[in-house]
Each structure stands twice: as structure tokens, then as C-alpha cells.
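From the methods appendix. Each design record in this collection lists the discretized structure first, followed by the designed amino acid sequence. Records were kept in a plain field format so they could be parsed without special tools. The example shown here is representative of the layout used throughout.

RECORD:
C-ALPHA CELLS (444 positions):
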């Protein structure tokens, strides 16, 4: 990033921070427009690959999918013709902006590759839509600032992030509730086991398939020759489009760690990030891969986030996938298959894990399926269980992990200003240059 680009980022960060500072956090989506109990929502689905198809089928339980959008026509046509989604009637759009222009569409799903999430989500908010967006919501720390400003400007739009672990009552919610009630004592260390990224290459360059608009798929990123392994699911192993496991599983497990530790409000976060114990499958120079035909995200790492209160969060590729929470009174481990530890086996939480606790974790709403909670908030108002603002605290740690790993060093982070301090090279990586024509809106 050039000095002028960095100066502009600093200015935009300061302006956006000032704009949202005067708006109470709890007002987010509190003014959502109630609908008749008999209404079915009118829905548009942007991004209809494998995950996009699953989410489209899920939201179709609550409304009619009248439009689908994808730059891969195979994906789009499959969604349109699915009896669970478009039922052969949905309009197809290769340009998501055309879908957003439709006044009848109230809700959109955004299930694209990561580097498209923020731009589409901000424009959806500007278009008056309620948004379900898959994680990870952002590609950079700068994008965190931009989308927070947009969400605060449009508090009547409900925005939920697809981190469904927040709706896992018997495992993750139980773990969070136990920590929040102080049953484990003071939390000293949380280990987020997220596995390592895939290793592969060299890959062959080729002509993009006729059903894929490769140029548009690349979006804000620098255009390159097509490699099949850069696209669709495998995009997540390239820093150009994602953060590897740091933003893939990290967006889930770091979220649980911060939720449990009560670090989900703006201004909370680590004060130092140590990335010295990180390795990549290809050689890096100044934080960037030296080859363009291999997967390049980290496959072996242990990133340490140090907090002012003495707590540490370790983000690691080593050991079991899951979240290990260690306090002064006990420790528990939780993942998608189990929750274990003496506090669980001995039912330390028998008096506090109840309906009242679940309602509190659900921001005053009854416990229910993740997408059901979203549509309830659209209908009634309120903040969904996986809201944008708390997710951005998770994304701060995810992106800081990426930067520390890429530079393989430690640096200071100011959670109040949301800026890396004392390391100009690391601070420059908080933002990325965006390709002309694909810039992300700045909302003031």
C-alpha cells in the first residue's frame, strides 16, 4: 500500500470511528419494520454455490426466493430450477446490482467468496435490504471499519452472520454460558484449534470455463490468469481472496472464544499479537508470496493474542479442532462433536444453564434455529444472536492473525483505535488496494 493510500485509510478509519462512536451499540436493528404474521418474505440469493445452495434452501422455509445471482451460470441455473429454492420461477441475474435494485426484495443472502462479502453487503444495506451474510464477513481490517459504519447508518436493517455455532445449544452455547457465569473462574487462556490450510501446487493456468465470468469473480483483487484451484471452494487457500484457516475456522472458534470471554464490544481486543511461530507452504518476502501457482495461506501456526487483563488466545493449527477454555477453577473443551471436562461431567452449570440463560444469549429472543432467529428479528425488531458488530471483533483477531503470520513477527494493537502501532509495514497491511470499478463504498 502506498503512503497516500495509507493516509487515506487512516483518514477513513478515523472518520468512520467518529461517526459510529455517538450511536449506541444496542440500537442496531432495533427499529426493524414489523411485518404481518402471515406475510412470507421476498428473498434474493446472491452466490449459489455449495454453501449458497444450502443457505438458500434454509431461508426458503421463511419466504419465496424470487431471484438468484451468480457469476457461474451452472450454479445459478441449478438454484433457479431447484424445487427447494427457485422452483423454476426465480429470475436469474449475473449482476447482483440488478437484484438489489428490485424494490420487492426484502431479504438477501450473500454467500459468495470472501473478497466479495463486504462490498455486496454494504450495497445491500444501502438498498434497504435485510442481510444474511456468510462468514467471514470481511477480507481486511479496513473493511471492518467500512461495514460497521454502514450498519450504524442503517439501524433498521437486520444483519446476521452465518456463524451457526452461536445457535448450538448443547455444546457452544453451554460453554459460553458456563464461562459467563464465572464457573471456570478467571479465564487465563483459550486455545482455538482451527487446523492448517491446504498445501498444493504448482497448478496449471488455463482458459476459464464458458459458464464462469472469471474477471467479475476476481472482483476487487488484481486480475490474474485462471487457475481452477483458485476458484470456488479452493479460493480460501489464497490470501488474495481469503485468510486461509484464520478466517475459515477462525471466524467460528475465535468468535466462541470472544463471546465466552465477554470481548465482543468495540474497543475490546488484544494489545499484542505474536506471529513468530507461523509457516507457509511457499516462500514469502515482505509478507507476500513469491510464487503465484501454489496455495499460499499458512498451513502450520500458533498465533498468540495477548490481552491487557493477562488472558491469552492461541490460534493454532496443531492439536484437535475446537475451543479449549482454561480458567482458575477449571477447564472445558468444546467442538462440533462434543463438550467435555470435569465442569461438564460434574454438571457445574445445572443451576444456570436454563431457558433464562438461553434467552439472554439470544439477546432477549427465544432459542431457535439460526435462520429462524434472523427472520424473527426482521419481523419483530431486535438484534440477532450472531450480529455484525460482535462478529467484527472476531474478524479483528482473524485479520491480525493473518498479518502476524505473513510477516512472522509480533506487533502492538490498539483495540480502542483499531490500529497496529509501531510497525509501519504491518499497519500498511490493514488495507488493500481495490481494483478500479470494484471499490467498496465508504459510508459516512
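DESIGN:
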Amino acid at each position: 500500500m502506498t503512503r497516500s493510500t495509507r493516509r487515506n485509510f487512516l483518514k477513513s478509519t478515523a472518520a468512520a470511528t467518529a461517526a459510529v462512536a455517538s450511536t449506541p451499540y444496542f440500537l442496531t436493528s432495533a427499529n426493524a419494520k414489523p411485518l404481518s404474521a402471515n406475510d412470507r418474505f421476498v428473498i434474493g440469493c446472491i452466490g449459489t454455490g455449495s454453501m449458497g445452495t444450502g443457505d438458500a434452501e434454509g431461508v426458503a422455509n421463511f419466504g419465496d426466493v424470487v431471484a438468484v445471482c451468480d457469476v457461474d451460470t451452472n450454479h445459478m441455473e441449478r438454484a433457479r430450477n431447484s424445487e427447494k429454492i427457485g422452483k423454476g420461477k426465480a429470475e436469474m441475474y449475473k449482476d447482483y446490482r440488478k437484484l438489489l435494485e428490485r424494490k420487492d426484495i426484502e431479504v438477501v443472502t450473500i454467500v459468495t467468496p470472501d473478497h466479495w462479502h463486504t462490498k455486496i453487503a454494504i450495497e445491500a444495506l444501502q438498498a434497504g435490504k435485510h442481510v444474511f451474510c456468510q462468514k467471514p464477513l470481511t477480507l481486511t481490517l479496513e473493511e471492518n471499519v467500512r461495514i460497521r459504519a454502514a450498519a450504524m447508518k442503517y439501524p433498521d436493517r437486520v444483519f446476521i452472520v452465518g456463524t451457526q455455532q452461536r445457535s448450538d445449544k448443547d455444546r457452544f452455547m453451554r460453554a459460553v454460558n458456563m464461562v459467563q457465569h464465572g464457573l471456570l473462574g478467571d479465564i487465563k487462556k483459550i486455545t482455538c484449534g482451527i487446523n492448517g490450510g491446504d498445501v498444493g501446487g504448482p497448478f496449471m493456468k488455463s482458459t476459464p470455463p464458458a459458464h464462469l465470468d472469471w474477471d467479475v469473480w476476481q472482483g476487487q483483487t488484481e486480475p490474474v490468469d485462471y487457475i481452477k484451484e483458485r476458484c470456488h471452494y479452493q479460493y480460501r487457500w489464497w490470501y488474495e481472496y481469503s485468510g486461509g484457516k484464520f478466517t475459515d475456522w477462525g471466524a467460528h472458534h475465535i468468535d466462541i472464544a470472544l463471546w465466552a470471554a465477554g470481548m465482543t464490544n468495540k474497543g475490546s481486543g488484544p494489545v499484542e499479537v505474536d506471529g513468530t511461530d507461523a509457516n507457509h507452504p511457499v516462500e514469502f518476502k515482505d509478507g507476500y508470496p513469491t510464487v503465484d501457482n501454489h496455495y499460499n495461506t499458512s498451513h502450520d501456526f500458533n498465533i498468540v493474542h495477548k490481552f491487557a487483563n493477562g488472558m491469552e488466545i492461541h490460534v493454532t493449527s496443531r492439536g484437535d479442532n475446537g475451543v479449549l477454555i482454561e480458567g482458575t477453577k477449571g477447564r472445558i473443551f468444546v467442538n462440533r462433536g462434543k463438550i467435555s471436562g470435569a465442569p461438564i461431567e460434574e454438571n457445574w452449570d445445572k443451576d444456570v444453564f436454563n431457558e433464562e440463560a438461553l434467552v439472554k444469549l439470544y439477546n432477549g429472543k427465544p432459542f431457535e434455529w439460526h435462520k429462524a432467529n434472523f427472520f424473527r428479528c426482521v419481523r419483530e425488531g431486535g438484534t440477532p444472536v450472531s450480529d455484525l458488530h460482535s462478529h467484527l471483533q472476531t474478524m479483528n483477531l482473524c485479520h491480525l492473525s493473518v498479518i502476524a503470520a505473513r510477516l512472522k513477527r509480533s506487533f502492538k494493537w490498539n483495540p480502542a483505535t483499531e490500529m497496529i502501532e509501531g510497525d509501519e509495514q504491518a499497519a500498511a497491511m490493514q488495507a488493500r488496494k481495490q481494483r478500479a470499478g470494484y471499490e467498496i463504498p465508504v459510508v459516512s
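APPENDIX NOTE: Residues 388-407 form the longest helix (20 residues).
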